[in-house]
Amino acid sequence: MRSPDKASVGGALLGLIAVVGGLLLEGGTLSQILQPTAALIVFGGTAGAVLIQFPLAVVMAALRKLRGIFSDPAEGLEPVMELLLRLANTARRHGIVSLDAELDSLEDPFLRKVLMLAVDGTEPAELRKIADLELNNLDEREEKLPLVFESAGGFSPTIGIIGAVLGLIQVMQHLDQIDQVGRGIAVAFVATIYGVAAANLLLLPAAGKLRIRHREEQIRREMILEGVISILEGMNPRILQISLRSYLTESGTQTKVAETSVKGKAAGA
Fold first, then answer.
1. Model confidence over 206-258: pLDDT tens digits?
2. Residue 4 pairs with which residues in a beta bridge?
């Protein structure tokens, strides 16, 4: 089970607590901002606008990715580097063909594909060409997902204003009941709160986090590609470790662990 992303979960809770806490400190109540009609206008209208702009498959893929921003990535770069170094040591001792036995145990589809091509005798230049084409296709698909939330974040405040105007229209039709006018205006502006809050507390931050995760995934795939091509070219595992180290976003402990792992395996070779 993946651990929760402390930044995402903490940020969401902090934003919610700040908004609700501010309301309560001013003497307000939750019932003042819980308006089903306003929610229907804002969220339904935003969803409709997004579906007009994007294909349904892209929207559904973006929604599936939304769940992932509240949990840490399943795998960081350090385990990938250690796996590549282990494969490099195996190939150095028994030859590149020996890695065929490792294919079924690899969970990452991109790693499995490029390693299979390497085992099948694909030349390094041809392997890079094939992998780059797949990377470009993957990037093109995944770059659309943050755009879904960016667009929703742009639509929701405007639709919130539409909801507020619709509420004011209803208020203006009952000016004869002056004691209800103030309450009606307050309720009308709840739609604006929904639209602005959804955009700035969820949709736009989600788009930003998805872009960061997408870049992390790009780096991971680039690291895999360079590692497999280096193994295919027969690079020494020690040199490969130095080359892969540049992909790590952190230093110190994880680099030290990797170095120890390489030395231990090299000593046993």
1. 999 999 888 888 888 999 999 999 998 888 888 888 888 888 854 333 434 33
2. 71
Q: How many CB atoms sit inside 10 A of residue 259's CB?
A: 15
Structural tokens at position 128: 């890079």
Contacts of 187 (CB under 8 A, 6+ apart): 32, 35, 38, 167
Encoded tokens for 41? 């206008």
Q: What are phi and psi of 71, to 5 degrees?
A: -135, 150
Distances in Å between the alpha carbon of 2 and those of 71, 79, 152, 207?
A: 6, 15, 27, 21
User: Token digits for 66?
Assistant: 């939304």
Question: Quick check: helix, strand or coil at residue 4?
Answer: strand
Give Cα 253 distance to the centre of its chain.
Answer: 26
Q: How many residues does the chain have?
A: 269
Tens-digit pLDDT profile for residues 14-52: 988 888 888 888 887 787 788 888 899 999 999 999 999
Cα gap 32→242, rounded to integer Å: 60
Q: Hey, what amino acid is at 23?
A: L
Dist. CA 11–CA 6, nearest whole Å: 8
Question: Is residue 180 very low, low, confident or very high in pLDDT (cuts 50, 70, 90)?
Answer: low
The one-letter amino acid code at 170 reads Q
Please say whether the dihedral angle defined by the alpha carbons of residues 245, 248, 252 and 256, taken in this order, is positive or negative.
negative
